[in-house]
Design goal:
The complex is a heterodimer of chains A (about 290) and B (about 425).
Chain A (H helix, E strand, L loop, with lengths): L4 H17 L1 H4 L29 H13 L25 H9 L2 E4 L8 E4 L13 H7 L11 H4 L5 H11 L4 H11 L15 E2 L8 E2 L20 H16 L3 H30 L5
Chain B lengths: L11 H9 L2 H10 L2 E3 L8 H22 L7 H10 L4 H28 L8 H23 L4 H12 L8 H9 L6 H30 L17 E3 H26 L29 H8 L4 H16 L1 H4 L11 H21 L6 H27 L9 H10 L12
Antiparallel strand pairs in B: 1-2
Helix pairs in contact in B: 3-5, 3-9, 3-10, 4-5, 5-6, 5-10, 6-7, 6-9, 6-12, 11-12, 11-14, 14-15
The chains are: A mainly alpha (about 290), B mainly alpha (about 425).
Chain lengths: ~290, ~425
């Protein structure tokens, strides 16, 4: 009788688990649904997987999209011009970075006379923000300050649930951020009939927190003139700028994966040797 | 530590020194010739793994502290400057942040091992209670460390957890204000959390030393639960367990490397890459995975004060486990009923963890209440009753006998469901 108890308790526990795993509970929330309405597609990225690397040409195009489109409203406070010369990143030449920085006006000072002054940018400067402060950014953008983009590719991710979390861990899927940015930038569309969205917002089923967001669709075909013959489509722009934002969020990604492979191979060999030594040491002792 | 003083200093200096401070002899008797049961399985390597992780956390933490600025407007930028501009700063930070997760992963295995093999039973009650104390200190340390990058989740975790103290009748508000150093979580809170986050690990080191001391007085338990009876039952710690622990540690480090180098952000909340914003609450405030079961217990009780009491009781109850378990048999290997309830308890803990990650609504609340109730029932009712009614299987006369039976006729191996 007592031996039966644990099985009964086990069956009960399994029943409870089945109860709350069943989708009936999840559908309980009525309109307007849970967010995001659509889960982003998984895209192919050159920097995915154990040997992932950034595609230099793609990062340079992505920077171009950022500079000509996104930078009108979004800051990039954590990135300095000098970072653009990173050999594992966009890999611009030092001269390119110098002349690029010089095209910007930077506020500096105070000088010896106590005055603030403007000077041309230097590689050590951070990319200047489009607005002097958050309040100015908000007031120029319908009350919603455009967020800084430096960490965007790590700061946004759609929930994937417990099973995917485990699978992603094994498959090394770490690209939920760029997938999300790509999906959001290409996902603007007309709202389904009957769905009301607040005035001044734009419907996007991929947006994490609501059915619509304040940002208008930022990209349109042909908007940025690529010089390397890459198609100038919205999808391509979104892809390139997402890759660029992954680099700004994780500038040492390539070094990390490279060192990781070396460390892992070393540890595997070391572990194997330690196992054989352990077997040898214990050989004569039954345990 | 307990007088296996077989160390003979050889040189003149060694003799001179040993007669003044017998520390070499102490190390020799505690970690070289220390008699250890010969049948410890790989679940026993987690003690060494935890010691390594504690040391690694302190080492990476000290270097991180050299580059970090504990000030509300600068904390996040200084963390990012570690990630970007400090040489191998990204490696240090990921080792430290993911290391905290792995530290808890290892400590949970260590604790469940103790529950399975009855490691808390006479004469190891104090050893177990010191372990629970270490666990408490780890919780405090990890929580305060999580606040330091001052991201959205840092800030709101600090807000939610410190707000628990407002549930205390009469003085709750005053205590919370005192903890905050102001009227909300702000720069003074960050400063004191930083100070305490640096202090507590060294207190953990101190309690770990007591933990090892308390271990070396009765000696290690072992998978059979039978006490050491003769010299045949043991092997010297070195080389047998130095090598076995090293192998276990290396396997664990493979997991560390996988996470730190390839999926470092899988254990970190995306929201914590957003600067703390006191006027914008994130849609879901979720703690790190290792706090989720306790978070589920807290949330499943509608009354705040009772919820907080349940939260603290869920850990406090562990202190009483040595007396709640009425069985004289240590190892679950010989306890057919307890063994099944043990695994149910493991599943319930994992279930609570899952519920802690879900929004507190609908069926999740009901399930959370049932599992919370079961968590306490396991300790307060199941443990005492099984010990009284269960009929244990025959226990081997000695460690050596069980080992020889196992190597002689593998079919009769007693360790059901347990590796090795």
């Amino acid at each position: 009788m007592i031996a039966m108890l644990p099985r009964l308790a086990g069956a009960l526990a399994a029943g409870i688990v089945a109860l709350f795993l069943s989708p009936a509970w999840a559908q309980e929330v009525q309109q307007p649904l849970t967010f995001p309405i659509k889960v982003p597609e998984q895209e192919r990225w050159s920097f995915a997987g154990p040997f992932g690397r950034f595609d230099t040409a793609q990062l340079q195009r992505g920077f171009q999209v950022y500079k000509e489109v996104c930078a009108n409203c979004h800051s990039m406070n954590l990135v300095a011009f000098r970072n653009l010369a990173d050999p594992f990143g966009p890999a611009f030449t030092t001269d390119q970075v110098k002349s690029l920085a010089a095209t910007y006006k930077i506020n500096d000072g105070p000088n010896d006379a106590g005055d603030m002054f403007e000077r041309p940018g230097r590689p050590s400067d951070r990319l200047p923000a489009p607005f002097p402060n958050v309040q100015a950014a908000a007031s120029a953008n319908n009350g919603a300050a455009p967020p800084d983009l430096s960490l965007m590719a790590k700061a946004r991710a759609a929930e994937r649930g417990p099973i995917w979390t485990v699978l992603d861990f094994l498959s090394q899927y770490q690209e939920a951020g760029p997938d999300y940015i790509h999906a959001l930038l290409t996902g603007f569309q007309d709202p389904p009939t009957g769905l009301k969205i607040p005035d001044g917002t734009h419907y996007n089923p991929y947006f994490l927190n609501a059915a619509s967001l304040s940002m208008p669709p930022p990209l349109s075909a042909g908007q940025v003139a690529y010089t390397d013959g890459t198609p100038t489509t919205v999808d391509q722009y979104a892809r390139d700028v997402s890759a660029f934002l992954m680099w700004t969020a994780e500038p040492h990604l390539v070094e990390r994966k490279r060192l990781g492979f070396q460390v892992f191979v070393f540890l595997l060999v070391f572990t194997g040797m330690m196992y054989l030594t352990k077997k040898r040491v214990w050989a004569k002792i039954p345990h | 530590m307990e007088g296996h003083a077989t160390y003979q200093p050889k040189g003149r200096f060694a003799k001179w020194f040993e007669s003044r401070l017998p520390i070499v002899g102490l190390v020799h008797s505690s970690f070289i010739v220390y008699p250890t049961p010969r049948n410890l399985n790989y679940w026993w390597t987690f003690g060494a793994i935890l010691t390594f992780m504690l040391t690694a956390q302190i080492a990476t933490g000290i270097v991180l502290a050299m580059h970090y600025t504990p000030e509300a407007t600068m904390a996040m930028n200084s963390t990012e400057s570690i990630m970007r501009d400090v040489n191998y700063g990204w490696l240090l930070r990921y080792l430290h942040a993911d290391g905290a997760s792995l530290f808890f992963f290892a400590v949970y295995i260590h604790m469940f091992r103790g529950l399975y093999y009855g490691s808390y039973k006479e004469p190891r009650e104090v050893l177990w209670m010191l372990g629970v104390l270490i666990f408490l200190l780890m919780i405090a340390t990890a929580f305060m460390g999580y606040v330091l990058p001052w991201g959205q989740m840092s800030f709101w975790a600090a807000t939610v957890i410190t707000n628990l103290f407002t549930a205390i009748p009469l003085v709750g508000r005053a205590i919370t204000t005192w903890l905050w150093g102001g009227f909300s979580v702000d720069n003074p809170t960050l400063n004191r959390f930083y100070s305490l986050h640096y202090l507590l690990p060294f207190m953990i080191v101190g309690v770990v030393a007591l933990h090892i001391w308390a271990l070396h007085v009765p000696g290690n338990g072992n998978p059979t639960g039978v006490s050491v009876k003769s010299k045949d039952d043991t092997v010297p710690f070195h080389p047998y367990y130095t090598i076995k622990d090293s192998f276990g540690l290396l396997v664990f480090l493979l997991l560390v490397a996988w996470i730190v180098f390839w999926v470092p952000n899988s254990l970190l909340a995306a929201d914590n890459y957003i600067q703390a914003n006191p006027i914008k609450t994130p849609p879901h405030i979720v703690p790190e995975w290792y706090f989720l079961p306790f978070y589920a217990i807290l949330r499943s009780i509608p009354n705040k004060l009772v919820g907080v009491i349940a939260l603290f009781s869920s850990i406090a109850v562990l202190f009483f486990v040595p007396w709640l378990d009425t069985s004289r048999v240590r190892s679950a290997t010989y306890r057919p009923i307890y063994r099944q309830f043990f695994w149910i308890f493991v599943l319930v803990s994992i279930g609570l963890g899952y519920l802690g990650s879900q929004p507190p609504e609908g069926g999740y609340v009901v399930a959370g209440r049932i599992l919370t109730a079961y968590y306490f029932i396991h300790f307060l009712i199941v443990l005492p009753i099984i010990g009284l009614v269960e009929r244990p299987r025959p226990i081997p006369l000695s460690i050596t006998e069980s080992v020889l039976a196992k190597s002689g006729m593998p079919a009769a191996a007693p360790a059901g469901g347990v590796p090795q």
